[in-house]
Write a structure and sequence with these properties.
Layout lengths: L2 H22 L7 H4 L7 H17 L4 H8 L3 H14 L4 E4 L4 E4 L12 H10 L30 H13 L1 E8 L8 E13 L4 E7 L4 E6 L3 E10 L8 H4 L1 E8 L5 H10 L7 E6 L3 H7 L2 E2 L13 E3 L2 H4 L9
Parallel strand pairs: 10-11
Antiparallel strand pairs: 1-2, 3-4, 3-7, 4-5, 5-6, 8-9, 8-11
Helix pairs in contact: 3-5, 4-5
Length: 327
């Protein structure tokens, strides 16, 4: 074998090794922007690698069939992506034959995706596969659109992941929760059975069966300080939660304190075909709608109409399901 050929092989091996090291050598969060400099990974492939990472960490598993179904690719193509991920992040996943899936290791550390709850929960809410886009911070359509810079109201990602894994597997969850209720201890341990996430527009909640009170209720996501999935299967499910499964109609109209011009403007704001706004919503979410739309829920409509522009016209029908939102 010639010396030139040996030198060439060594050079190629060195380049491959450097590229792998470039991926794993970042300290702190190894988010998508760090990976974008790797020209050898195409954008479409990088999206699938991000999906692998999000699914593995937050749901606790990623299988070939899940990846293939999500992206409409063949099983061999999905196998190739999983192999590539394991080659580039060899310490993150291990195969668990009992669930026919790869599961995260105790040393899991993101390489391709931003796994912060702020990023991932927004993906879940919009049902997006990944959060990455090829234009970076440049608007894809050339249109500026801003979101309000609200304070972060999220627990550590490991807590969110445990909650979501319990939902995914139908398991009980041991949590420590900080309650504002005067009837409860400020912070204590409890067992819940979560079945859904709720984005109220202001913060995130977890809908769950509470073992202490024997009922379904909402827990503010940011108030969890610990969470651990238990081996016991959940005794409840979403179908047992009547207020989640049943819907009702909220009927709203312009505040009587508004003048005619203001009421007309409000009609355009909400595309009101008549004098009423009708919203069909899960019974469990009624209060959040009233809160988000800043509805005057006082009996005599005494709130400032410039700040609370709507009132409820079917109070008797909906108040039993959101008493906390009425004054």
């Amino acid at each position: 074998m010639s010396i030139v050929f040996i030198m060439l092989i060594n050079y190629i091996s060195c380049i491959i090794f450097i590229n792998i090291i470039r991926i794993r050598s970042y300290t702190g969060k190894k988010v998508a922007n760090n990976v974008k400099m790797l020209d050898e990974i195409k954008f479409a492939t990088r999206q699938r690698l991000q999906f692998i990472e999000v699914m593995a960490y937050y749901t606790g598993m990623i299988s070939r069939s899940t990846l293939a179904k999500a992206y409409g690719i063949s099983d061999p193509a999905a196998t190739k992506d999983l192999k590539l991920y394991n080659d580039l992040a060899p310490d993150n996943l291990e195969y668990n034959p009992s669930v026919f899936s790869f599961v995260p290791t105790k040393d899991f550390d993101e390489v391709f995706a931003d796994l912060s709850p702020q990023s991932v929960l927004s993906m879940f809410a919009q049902n997006l596969l990944t959060m990455d886009n090829p234009s970076g911070n440049t608007p894809i359509y050339g249109i500026t659109a801003e979101e309000l810079p609200l304070p972060s109201r999220m627990p550590d990602k490991s807590i969110v992941a445990e909650i979501i894994r319990a939902m995914k597997t139908g398991s009980q969850l041991q949590v420590t929760y900080h309650s504002l209720s005067q009837r409860e201890d400020v912070e204590r341990s409890r067992i819940i059975e979560p079945h859904a996430l709720i984005n109220t527009g202001l913060r995130w909640h977890v809908r769950a069966y509470n073992h202490d009170s024997y009922d379904f209720r909402d827990f503010v996501l940011s108030r969890f300080t610990s969470a651990q999935q238990l081996p016991a299967a959940a005794e409840s499910s979403q179908s047992y939660d009547d207020d989640w499964m049943e819907t009702l109609q909220i009927k709203l109209k312009a505040h009587p304190g508004l003048d005619e011009n203001q009421a007309t403007a409000l009609k355009y704001d909400y595309d009101m075909k008549s004098k009423h706004i009708e919203i069909n919503v899960r019974r469990a979410l009624v209060g959040y709608i009233l809160q988000l739309l800043k509805v005057d829920t006082t009996l005599n409509h005494s709130l400032n109409p410039n700040a609370y522009q709507l009132i409820v016209t079917n109070r008797d029908e909906i108040e039993p399901f959101a008493s906390w939102a009425f004054m």
